[in-house]
Prior knowledge:
Helices cover 36% and strands 34% of the residues. The protein has 151 residues and is α+β, with helices and mostly antiparallel strands. The radius of gyration is 24 Å and the shape is elongated.
Amino acid sequence: MEVILKKDVKGTGKAGDVVKVSDGFARNRLIPSGDAVEATPANKKMMERQSAKREELLAQEKAEAQALAAKLAKEQIVIKTKTGEGGRLFGSITSMDIADAIKEQTGEEIDKRKIILDKPIKETGVFDVEAKLFSDVSAKLEIRVEGGKED
């Protein structure tokens, strides 16, 4: 029997695949659990429409991520913090601090988990940081950390 998988099934296939399985496996396991539907012409057309819609949404998200990357590449994000002797920070600048500064200065919201820091920033200066906005779209951010003496 041919079925269209709605979800990834280990050892059988990935979501959207049309696979040939035994009648018993399809009727007793895949179809009742909602992991698959029978591969009728109507169901095949429905899955094609859904995959086309999914691809269209992914293309739109990618275009938005590329536009955001271009916008952020032009910006310099400034973070002001208290410093001690020699420009050393009290604490460090983390990805959450960078995400908050981006939202405050540009109005764009980026999840802190998408900001890639090799190590926390612990001194003043200009740093290049990468933000992974989409699976194959990343933005280079220029972060300037400014400090002042502890009051």
